[in-house]
Specification:
This protein is mostly helical and 191 residues long. The chain has a domain of 132 residues: Tetracycline Repressor, domain 2, CATH 1.10.357. Helices cover 76% and strands 0% of the residues. The longest helix is centred in the middle third of the chain and has 23 residues. 32% of the residues are buried.
């Protein structure tokens, strides 16, 4: 059965959304096209009508995940007195640590992206730049002129702490990484 252009575009967006979550949960190479398309409610044959390759889908799914993550950061920054505080609270939390399919794509897929081609890396670079822009804006509302370097340090510290908290078995150590990073992020922002 032939589908309309509108339905084809809806199917494409569904696949990108599903891939965004499943890639974060399983890695780019941890899920095959058959399982991915089945999760999207479509056949594997429909994949090739919508995407040039799995790498093409990986780049689009990464962009979608990073866009959603940056929107989440912006939405969290609601306190004009401490705009960075709510971002720190949700990002460096046990709940976020446990969010495999909807958590931070930089943490979930960063090392995978480093092994992929230019399109996937470009998606990550754009998303990371957006995260840095958000951090610069959040710390510039309350701090001095060193926004760019502070934003880089804060993003690096937060991503590293969340990554480390996910790879250890000891829940106390995992929480200590998050708590220590939160305190250090506040120190960097306040300096």
């Amino acid at each position: 059965m032939r589908v309309s252009r509108v339905q084809a575009e809806e199917n494409r967006q569904t696949v990108i959304n599903v891939a965004s979550r499943l890639f974060r949960e399983h890695g780019f190479d941890g899920i095959g096209l058959k399982d991915l398309m089945e999760a999207a409610g479509l056949t594997q044959g429909a994949f090739y009508k919508q995407f040039a390759s799995k790498e093409d889908l990986a780049a689009l799914a990464a962009s979608r995940a990073l866009e959603n993550a940056s929107c989440r950061w912006t939405a969290a920054a609601t306190d004009p007195q401490d705009p960075l505080g709510p971002v720190i609270s949700f990002y460096l939390s046990a709940g976020h640590r446990e969010e495999k399919s909807d958590g931070c794509p930089i943490v979930a897929l960063g090392s995978d992206a480093a092994r992929h081609g230019a399109a996937v890396k470009a998606s990550f670079e754009a998303g990371i730049r957006t995260h840095l822009d958000i951090l610069e804006r959040l710390i510039s509302e309350t701090q001095g002129e060193e926004f760019k370097s502070k934003a880089m340090a804060i993003l690096s510290l937060m991503v590293g702490a969340l990554t480390l908290s996910r790879v250890v078995n000891d829940p106390g150590l995992a929480q200590a990484f998050l708590d220590t990073a939160a305190a250090q992020v506040r120190n960097i922002a306040a300096a």
